[in-house]
Amino acid sequence: MMTTSKFDATQLPATLVRGTPAYGKAYQAFAEVLYRTNILSDPWLYGEERFLLEPILISETQQQALYTAAEAIGKVYDELAELVWRQPDYLDTFFGLTPYQKLMWLTSGGRWHFIARLDVFEEHGGGIKICEMNSDTPSGEAEAVLLNDLLHKRVPHARNPNANFEDTFITALLAAYHADVREPKEKPTIGIIYPTDLPEDLSMILLYKSWFERRGFTVVLGSPLNLRKTKNALCLFSQPIDIAIRHYKTDWWGEREPVWLDEEDYPDPYPMHRELLAMLEAEEEGRVSVLNPFGAVLTQNKLTMAFLWKYRAAFSPESQAAIQAYIPETHRLVDMDIETLLCEQEKWVLKSDYGCEGAEVIIGKFTTPTSWKLSLEQAIKERWVAQRFFEAECLKRGGIANFGVYLIGGKACGFYTRVSHTATDYTTPCAAVFIDSSIN
What we know:
Blueprint: H1 21-36, E1 44-45, E2 48-49, E3 51-58, H2 60-86, H3 90-93, H4 99-106, E4 115-122, E5 128-134, H5 141-151, H6 165-180, E6 190-193, H7 202-214, E7 219-222, E8 227-229, E9 234-236, E10 239-241, E11 243-246, H8 250-253, H9 273-284, E12 289-291, H10 296-299, H11 303-310, H12 317-326, E13 330-332, H13 338-343, E14 348-352, E15 361-363, H14 369-378, E16 384-388, E17 400-408, E18 411-420, E19 430-435
Parallel strand pairs: 3-19, 6-7, 6-11, 11-12
Antiparallel strand pairs: 1-2, 4-5, 4-17, 8-9, 9-10, 13-16, 14-15, 14-16, 17-18, 18-19
């Protein structure tokens, strides 16, 4: 059972400086409370503190600007999905999807969204930039919700933007379920499908499980290998499920291919044929709601950002303006002049099509010329994009805030914020964000 009642954020020192004995003592007390949640069990990662005890305070205007940008790009991606659905030739001619990736997209009906998280930055000198969107298996929900809950008393005058995340999530999930299946039940059984051999997102899985069980839902946890289809149901182990929360990346369901010329083949490169077909067939029969839908195989692909720039004229005027304002200039690497990228190293960032959490991201400004040149030589160019580097605004206390804005059903509903000095990755510490109406 989750409990945070023994932690009193008001007892923290007024000024907290990381690395000092006072901070270490305060963090130890904080870590003990995290353990007692029975959800977050990793307050340290590789010996470093995973969480910041000093919240970030932003104004109502800042929150609205960040939310507006995220929602605008969500609408852009909805247009992109509709455009590619009408013109499926792009799957081959622009995106180069594999056969099983195309299967996922073509059986989705163009549906791609239930929950997404966008990496949103305030730009130095003004403006907002969104460098990517995780529309496939967005994580960080446990950190976002629990950290804000624990630290809210430290700034009681401020508003918690994540306070309604749980209710918003549950309401939207049940609405999607009722829209997807032919004979919805009052209490559907929920299966959470995730890579059981990887612990990184276990806290999110446990948080979801606690939310559902508190409302009386039956919850089953398992990996894709535990799926099977019967005549009348999709089963996880032997339990029929009605909602499949898919926290297993779309590019792992299909063919797994290297993104580097000198990279070894995956030990398990073949698609999950049986498991994928079980999901797709049950979904097609209206027996299960899959969230996020498998159509996220397209929107998760970072080549979409290059598509937005190359085919801006095909989008609505509102979306064209949003692309120009919020998405950094992005091109497929195969369309770029390599000599230009070598000469303008500090102006560009390389990203693979399905890399996540900072993996397969090479920032020219923070990379040696030798590594940059080698990356350009060894990258399988059809699988990469080059995105123009932008200077993010630094916080007054130091570091750059990656305001991860969650969208549920296209509406912004909270932050998962990490503070870094270079690129954001899994080790980047998390910070609570609160809205202070006294800030102009």
